[in-house]
Amino acid sequence: MLEHLNLLRPLLERSNELYFAYDLGEQRVVYVSAAYEQIVGDPSEHIHDDLPYLLTRVHPDDWQFLQRRVAQAALEELVQDVEVRMSRTTGSTQWIQVSVCRRQLPTGARYLVGTVRDITRDKEVVINGEKFNTKKNATLEILSHDLAAPLVLLQQLTEHLTWELGTPNEKTQEVLRLMQRTCTQGVNLIRDFVDNEFLESSNVEMRLERADLVAWLHTLMEEYERSEQHTHLHFSFVPAEQPIYVNFDINKLQQVINNLVSNAIKFTPDGGRIAVNIERQGTNALLTVADSGIGIPTDLQEGLFEKFTKARRSGLRGERSTGLGMSVIKTIVDLHGGRIWLESAEGQGTTFYLELPAFAT
């Protein structure tokens, strides 16, 4: 056995990944590879002095999560790729990826063995990309309403002008038809662009990761709150608590929230309110998107989440609907092991409820 380990020693000692073995009985580290100095910034021989201090640098939520994962795993079962945040002395965050396994030798000695990898650079790229994507998608929704509004108004004015003129001459009729057609094509082009973005993003393979849903929603809702002067609507986000950790695909879930908020914008008159809230209910996170809009007629609610539902309606500002959005939303929620439902009454607004499994704090 020792001979086999010696064969692997060059790999263990020269790898950027840290390998370790911890004696659970004696509560001490019996082996740590040379990558310790690269990841921690201290010589490996200082491991025994460093360990208590290193544990205090681990984010409490991540430390509890890692402990639960290890405790729930059976003997010899590998707990793989758990992402953990550690605070640096500079105040910045270091991300590490931990894989561990509990082992027991024939002698009865019990060990915790595993690897640690510094993923800070990769994680920062992913987080920045997700934040940019979140803001981009919210901005697209806002711009689609902002850009379409003047065209819808011009379309309505053209219709009114046609009615006022009664039976205009053929040349005037042609000009009015051209104006109406141009406005309609412009509005449809804007909505097609946003709808296609939503559908393409929703078809990307699922990539679940444990993250604070409240912090992510803050980033998303900031863009809508900044848009109040353009959309003439009031947005609010009031979480009941923070953090709430959920295993979710950030890109897909942001499409769900964007689509729900977008629908609320479509059917809420100027001066209305759209509120997003989140709270913990037992082992679940309950997210709500509520508006003070025109509501959904009772006869349209039953098939709302079906593909090409009969419930599809044009928005108050002329926004058209493909009827695909709600069916895609339900599919994404189902893939997350959650459920979605609504409460609505005509003239009293609509509230969508989205329930997702949450991690214990």
Tell me what you see in this structure.
The chain has 361 residues and is of the alpha+beta class. It has two domains: 2-118, Beta-Lactamase (2-Layer Sandwich); 123-357, Heat Shock Protein 90, CATH 3.30.565.10. Helices cover 48% and strands 24% of the residues. A five-stranded antiparallel beta sheet has the order 2-1-5-4-3, with helices on both faces. A hairpin with a 5-residue loop joins strand 3 and strand 4 (93-104). Helix 5 (120-165) packs antiparallel against helix 6 (170-202), helix 5 packs parallel to helix 7 and helix 5 runs parallel beside helix 9. The relative contact order is 0.09. The mean pLDDT is 81.
How do the strands and helices of this protein lay out in sequence?
Elements: H1 2-14, E1 18-23, E2 28-32, H2 35-40, H3 47-57, H4 60-72, E3 78-87, E4 93-104, E5 110-118, H5 120-165, H6 170-202, E6 209-212, H7 213-226, H8 228-231, E7 234-237, E8 245-248, H9 250-266, E9 273-281, E10 284-291, H10 298-301, H11 325-335, E11 339-345, E12 349-357
Parallel strand pairs: 7-9
Antiparallel strand pairs: 1-2, 1-5, 3-4, 4-5, 6-8, 9-10, 10-12, 11-12
Helix pairs in contact: 5-6, 5-7, 5-9, 9-11
The secondary structure category is: alpha+beta
CATH classification class of the largest domain: Alpha Beta
Strand content: 15-25%
Number-wise, the strands total 12
Low-confidence stretches: none
Radius of gyration: 28 Å
Q: Can you summarize the main beta sheet? A: 5 strands, antiparallel
What is the overall number of helices? 11
* CATH fold name of the largest domain: Heat Shock Protein 90
Instruction: Give the termini separation.
Output: 42 Å
Count the domains.
2
Helix-residue proportion: 40-55%
Strand order of the largest sheet: 2-1-5-4-3
Mean pLDDT, to the nearest integer, reads 81
Order of helices and strands: HEEHHHEEEHHEHHEEHEEHHEE
Shape: elongated
